[in-house]
């Protein structure tokens, strides 16, 4: 799913566009015991309660595609009878009305979700009558050919509110506030099936994680059975290691600067596109080759990452380059300039020493104090 498709589904979580037919919930304590459950038609909820749920549903689709929102695919085995995808498909097709299937899903999730505190599992079923689009891209709500039927599962931490004082309006006094167990913002969630090309794709799902570097691996592997892509941080670290290893002694300041500039130019050109730019290992090889990498090193790269594409088909370009800053760091000095201002920084040999030189204009501050820029020798 791309950003545009994510936003289209988020619009369903409003009173005017609500496509939710049923909601189920299960409150689990720190010892993995079920404390209470909810099973009812969503439209029977009080309006104020429904609004709070809408915020939770939308929160479970927030963040950046490729970082917080990850497209995950099912391996072939998962789609066979008795596989994880097959089970989720039966759960979706039941519209959450089969209590045994819902209970079985809770058991699978509780068993595989490693979380030492209380949490609330929310399951909803939705049926979205997909509006057709005219040739100029406008939605035609009276013309629809497909219904996108999906389930969304959300896991929210439940934590005790902070102690404090509050104003009691009835008694007109300031007094101690009772501490309550509050359902917090989503920590983990998924939508199945994914909404790819504006239709259901039963071979994949959209996974949400609040913290991309602390994803629940057992839950993904055992309950969902999906192929987990590398996190944004892992993609960046892997790419950095590739550049350092392949370029070797030729990994110069100018080489990294060239790669940074070319990547950010591509991102700037595609900023209005809905699909995120990706780059494959074979493309990385060409970039390194154009920057002077040795042929022997490139052959080693090909051999080492021969099976790499099968596991990680591509990097998201936004994950392996900094779109905001260009950073230079030594043990004692850190330099940061805007991503599109790299021409201000260059490497030079001065008096036999390698130096990083920064071009400045008349506006220079040191510790917040405006100073005069350096003058050429002989000038005052």
Describe this structure in words.
With 380 residues, the protein is α+β, with helices and mostly antiparallel strands. It has helices at 3-10, 47-59, 84-93, 99-112, 217-224, 232-247, 253-269, 281-290, 295-304, 308-311, 317-320, and strands spanning 20-28, 34-41, 69-73, 119-133, 139-160, 165-168, 173-176, 181-183, 188-192, 194-196, 199-201, 204-209, 278-279, 315-316, 325-329, 334-338, 345-350, 353-358, 364-366, 369-371. The strands form seven sheets. Strands 1, 2, 3, 4, 5, 8, 9 and 12 form an eight-stranded antiparallel β-sheet that branches. A two-stranded antiparallel ribbon has the order 6-7. The chain starts with a helix and ends in a 9-residue tail after the last strand. The relative contact order is 0.11. The model has no long low-confidence stretch (mean pLDDT 88).
Instruction: Kindly estimate the percentage of residues that lie in beta strands according to DSSP.
Output: 25-35%
Whole-angstrom Rg:
27 Å
Q: Structural class, from helix and strand content?
A: alpha+beta
- Counting DSSP E segments of at least 2 residues, the number of strands comes to 20
Number of helices: 11
List keywords for this structure.
alpha+beta; eight-stranded antiparallel beta sheet; 20 strands
Topology:
Blueprint: H1 3-10, E1 20-28, E2 34-41, H2 47-59, E3 69-73, H3 84-93, H4 99-112, E4 119-133, E5 139-160, E6 165-168, E7 173-176, E8 181-183, E9 188-192, E10 194-196, E11 199-201, E12 204-209, H5 217-224, H6 232-247, H7 253-269, E13 278-279, H8 281-290, H9 295-304, H10 308-311, E14 315-316, H11 317-320, E15 325-329, E16 334-338, E17 345-350, E18 353-358, E19 364-366, E20 369-371
Antiparallel strand pairs: 1-2, 1-4, 3-12, 4-5, 5-8, 5-9, 6-7, 9-12, 10-11, 13-14, 15-16, 17-18, 19-20
């Amino acid at each position: 799913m791309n950003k545009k498709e994510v936003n289209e589904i988020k619009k369903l979580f409003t009173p005017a566009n609500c496509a939710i037919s049923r909601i189920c919930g299960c409150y689990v304590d720190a010892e993995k015991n079920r404390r209470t459950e909810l099973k009812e038609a969503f439209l029977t909820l009080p309006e104020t309660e429904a609004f709070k749920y809408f915020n939770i549903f939308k929160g479970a689709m927030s963040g950046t595609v490729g970082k917080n929102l990850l497209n995950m695919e099912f391996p072939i085995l998962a789609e066979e009878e008795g596989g994880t995808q097959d089970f989720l498909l039966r759960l979706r097709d039941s519209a959450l009305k089969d209590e045994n299937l819902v209970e079985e899903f809770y058991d699978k999730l509780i068993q595989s979700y490693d979380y030492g505190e209380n949490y609330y599992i929310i399951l909803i079923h939705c049926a979205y009558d997909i509006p057709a689009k005219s040739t100029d891209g406008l939605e035609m709500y009276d013309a629809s050919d497909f219904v996108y039927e999906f389930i969304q599962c959300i896991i929210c931490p439940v934590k005790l509110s902070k102690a404090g004082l509050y104003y009691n309006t009835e008694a007109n006094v300031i007094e101690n506030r009772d501490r309550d167990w509050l359902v917090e913002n989503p920590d983990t969630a998924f939508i199945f099936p994914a909404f790819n090309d504006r239709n259901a794709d039963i071979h994949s799902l959209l996974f949400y994680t609040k913290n991309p570097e602390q994803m629940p691996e057992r839950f993904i592997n055992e309950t969902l059975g999906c192929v987990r892509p590398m996190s944004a941080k892992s993609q960046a670290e892997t790419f950095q290691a590739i550049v350092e290893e392949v370029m070797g002694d030729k990994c110069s300041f100018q080489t990294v600067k060239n790669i940074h500039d070319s990547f950010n130019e591509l991102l700037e050109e595609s900023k209005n596109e809905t699909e995120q730019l990706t780059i494959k290992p074979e493309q990385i090889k060409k970039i390194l080759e154009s920057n002077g990498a040795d042929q022997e090193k490139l052959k080693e790269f090909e051999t080492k990452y021969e099976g790499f594409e099968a596991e990680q088909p591509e990097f998201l370009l936004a994950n392996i380059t900094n779109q905001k800053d260009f950073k230079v760091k030594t043990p004692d000095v850190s330099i940061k300039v805007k991503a599109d201002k790299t021409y201000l920084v260059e490497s030079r040999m001065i008096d036999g020493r390698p130096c990083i030189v920064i071009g400045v204009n008349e506006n220079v501050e040191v510790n917040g104090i405006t100073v005069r820029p350096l003058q050429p020798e002989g000038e005052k």
